[in-house]
Design brief:
Elements: H1 3-10, H2 18-40, H3 45-49, H4 54-73, H5 77-93, H6 99-115, H7 118-133, H8 135-144
């Protein structure tokens, strides 16, 4: 799957309702704290993020929450695909293993399920599902650029 194919799949994502975005925005700092704790507690954390990358991982999680909030409010499939491609490439070049993305995104989904109302989770989950389903495509794309 190439960039254009990813953009086509991303165009199917839309209709993020404001009540869910507002709840995500309100709770994003809590979500970041929880994903950091969850990831740091992993026994394989050094294998999936590399040596001395804990602070970089925390920065990624904070940036992720701000990016998701912005993409939910101002949805743009091209910006979504290009930004995620850049993130994969940048973090891979710093020693993050492809397995980090699945671990992180599954962690986000678990935390979103715990922290958001069921209605808000159902609105936001398709974006996280799209991230997860497309991990192999973004990994391949990051290796080919």
């Amino acid at each position: 799957m190439n960039r254009e194919d990813l953009i086509k799949t991303a165009l199917d994502l839309k209709g993020f309702e404001s009540f869910a975005i507002d709840e995500y925005s309100l709770k994003k700092d809590i979500l970041v704290v929880k994903i950091n704790k969850k990831m740091i507690a992993r026994l394989d954390i050094k294998e999936i993020i590399g040596e001395n990358n804990i602070e970089m991982m925390k920065d990624n999680h904070a940036n992720h929450a701000r990016f998701v909030e912005n993409i939910l409010r101002n949805y743009n499939a091209v910006i979504l695909v290009d930004t995620v491609s850049w993130v994969f490439r940048a973090y891979r070049s710093r020693g993050f293993h492809p397995n980090y993305w699945a671990a992180q995104l599954n962690g986000w989904i678990d935390i979103l399920k715990e922290e958001l109302s069921k209605e808000s989770f159902n609105v936001i989950y398709p974006l996280y599902n799209w991230f997860t389903v497309n991990i192999p495509a973004f990994t391949n794309l990051s290796e080919s650029l």
